[in-house]
Write a structure and sequence with these properties.
Keywords: Calcium, Hydrolase, Metal-binding, Signal. This is Sulfatase-like hydrolase/transferase. Belongs to the sulfatase family. The protein is α+β, with helices and mostly antiparallel strands. 15% of the residues lie in helices and 30% in strands. The chain has eleven helices and 38 strands. The strands form seven sheets. Strands 2, 3, 4, 5, 6, 7, 8, 9, 10, 11 and 12 form an eleven-stranded mixed sheet that branches. β29 and β30 form a beta hairpin. α4 packs parallel to α5. The radius of gyration is 27 Å and the shape is globular.
Amino acid sequence: MPSRRQFLSGSAAALALVTLPGAPTAAATTATAGRAPNIVLVLADDLGWGELGSYGQKLIDTPRLDELAAQGLRFTRAYAPAAVCAPSRCSLLTGLHTGHATVRQNPFSGPQGSLVEGDTTFAEVLRSRGYRTACIGKWGFGPDLADQPSHPNARGFEEFYGYINHGHAHEYYPTYLWDNGEQVSIPENANGAKGTYAPDLMEQRALDFIDVHSTEPFLLFLTPTLPHAPSDIPNADQYAGESWSSADKKHAAQVTRLDTMVGRVVDRLKALGIAQDTLVLIAGDNGPHEEGGVNPNTFDASGPLRGIKRNLYEGGVRVPLIAWQPGKVRVGSTDRPTPLTDLLPTFAQMAGAPAPGDTDGISVVSLLSSTSSQWHNHLYWMRNDPYSSTLSSQADSGRWNRVAEAVRKGPLKAVRFAPARDRTAPDSQWHFELYDLATDPGEATNIAASRPTDVAAMTALMRSSWVDTYIRKAFGLNLKGPGLATPGKTFTISATVGNASTSTWTDPLVTLTAPTGWQVRATTPTTQPQIAAGRSFVVTWEVTPPSTAPLAPVTLRAEATATYNGNPVKFTDKELTEVVSTIPAPPTASVYLSDLPWVWAKNGWGPVERDLSNGKQGAGDGPGISIAGTAYAKGLGVHAPSEIVYNLGGKAKRFTATVGIDDFSATQSTVGSVRATVVGDGAQLFDSLTLTAASAPRKVDVDVTGVRVLRLIVRDANSDGSYDHTSWASAFITL
């Protein structure tokens, strides 16, 4: 189970947020006396730059959004961090562009990309100052499971309601949604029925969140899937008389439904008397789509810009961005090139919160109240996507299946295409284009041939902007223990308080709470005068469970407090430790897992077998392991549902195997269907997706560096449970 780096749990008053003594004094952040500013961020899905009336739209009605634009600040050169949703949302949340972020592309054929323990979202930053936080709508990262490091609850959002992964979010009438860590069924949508429209549920949940937390600072990240394909909506009567296709009519209705949702949120803020205390932001995650029969040209969805979703030209990455806060945000527009990675440092400054200093964003707090603001040296994008559409392929001149990069520096915009999907190819093999957006906003005239010096400079920026593995300094609190414990035996656990901000934190204090009856003794000081910028403070304890401790998982909780620029901050984390009867020693050499003692194993049909397939039910009654006609001398034979737990003790580097329905099942029936996953310290490292008797086995090759507890899990995938004999063939740990 994961160690989930969580921030403050409790009311904002606990951190004296009512005064914000160290907060900026600019008008844009000076909310009503006695409270810190609320933040509502609405992120639309595939909303084109030109699909709002305030950005030139003539056919689709968006009166509420246009009103906010007229009363607030309209960004004419705001940029999504990527041309498709998963990398765009990862960068938005973490403030890192696609050359540094954890999730840099949409999935090809494998599982959805995930955030990791080292990622810090803007929700985590605000939680350190006591903000109540909610993500309602599409999260967009896998796996579709609770209690794992990529879940919104583990990344700073104390309340989550919606879709966890990308694929599930394509359903406007889903049979379930996630409510924090629980899947909640929607029976009205069972068996293909369309009884309950998901955006309606999300709107109500958002209004409820505002009602509950109206008297304390809050962050609402509202992420409806509107107007992403499919063009599914209860009715499109408003556009019934238009001569457009059915898909276009429904798409227009989706955009108008988004407009209505935002209007209702604003109305609720006004009704509660907190509109002046709340910064409302509306943005898109990438350019407009051409999916499910929608033709973005019907609406001139990109305006005068070239390209749509999946293109790195302006139409694929330039998005609407509106900021509104009566009396606080100035009225007008700004042409500052503003990537959505700027939101994390902006939110941190507004809340008087520390933020990691190794992000790529720049705060725009001053821009909200005046025309002055620091500009980026350059902006960077990378695209590696498995799909295309007719218009996006045309914009790319048929090069949609190539890795592409783009950089904007001043008025110059460079786009280049690799010879295939290899971004390490020599620069001479890339096709390079250069545009002057000041005179050519539609990127129609490639001036690269006449500007060799600029081409060389922009190429160098692209190369320097990409880092294969972006190493970050620790931020916040991370609790780390062995993951396993035995009754009556002492183990060591440590907490690291990382100050990756640019300012010193003073008077840090770290405490650890264990279940009743457990003994906890600090072996290092739990406080010190300060933590310098870029440094960490580590505290260790010896923990002893009682000899009568039940054999079950328990939660250990750590809390760290400190002062940042005069503001109190608090971080919390928890570690799930499983109490077991015995803990085998970790491996001392590279070894097959069938030769390594496990901590425990459970199996759906007879015992887990070593170097044999799971047989008829008795121990050792199965044949040798064979998958798709290939025999394997070593491995583990199981039957879903199955879980095997190993103590690696942080000693191993890689785990490799081949997993699939064993021929023992496949030769008897084709109904077997399973899904195999590998989990290390609570984080999913591998997902086979669905395996059947007819499908090819999946190769497993994952990095397990530092992993203490490894779990091999096989679940039934078709609610049948028959003939689910599965083998982890040649399962091997490399030290």
